[in-house]
Amino acid sequence: MIPFENTWPYEVLMNDIYVRECPFCSTENVILPLTKKELVSIREGKKKLLVFPCCHQHLKILDTDSDYLLTDRRLRRR
Ligand SMILES: [Zn+2]
To answer: I need a labelling partner for 12 at 20 to 30 A (CA). Which of 5, 30, 43, 50 fits?
Structure first.
């Protein structure tokens, strides 16, 4: 199980996948270098290294569901 602290919500708008806020630098509405096709392959078990374009922080996406990216880094504070 991937802990909730390691999850982050994403949004899909047309062909763009974005987050309302970057978990690292708090930039708003960051479009991720990620495609819908890649979301599907992640769900099928492929891991994906994601580099945020705003601050170049990186994490590995281990899984996704329809709302959240499930990652290898803690993104939420308690
Ligand atoms: Zn950032």
So the answer is: 5
